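Sample entry (190 residues):
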Amino acid sequence: MSDENGAPDTGEAAPADQTALPGQGAAPGQGAVPGGPRPEPLRLFGTTWVNRDPGYQGYTARRIAASVGSLAAVTVSCLVLRFAYQGLAIADIGSFVTVLVVAMFAICSALAFRHTWDAFAKRPDPDRQASLRGLLAIGFVGSLVAYFFRSLTEAPGEKLHREEYDTARQAYERRTSRRTGNPSKKRRRG
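Predicted structure, serialized as tokens:
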């Protein structure tokens, strides 16, 4: 098995014109330029976002499923947080600590929402992402809400991936269009 894409390793090297550009996934994409860059698959969507594939397992069905699933996850998460709040109330630890815990979850959820929303438009810095891991874990409800709202209009992260894919495809087309013809047969300007 290949480590990169989970496909069986045949031991053969890929042809030079089949390699993906940096930032491009190795999944075969619908609508990809033959021999050019391949679209990077999105979580839950694969490469259906490229042509917005119709059908039972196409883009629209996956967007609806992502919206419903993330809304259900938000609902369940809020119920779990409600049980945690009731546990604090039963423990009678004091109003200050209760307010502190509620404020912590509210603030972390707001920050996680903003961070997740911004990550749909531009790639986050890996170092900053690692330093915010704890905050994003505490504010998981905010991340789920951001995912829900984004999936109402597009696949979360589609805009960023589409811009990167279009840029890579245009660069590939510019590179290949310059190399047409035999350069030794060109007329020299005198």
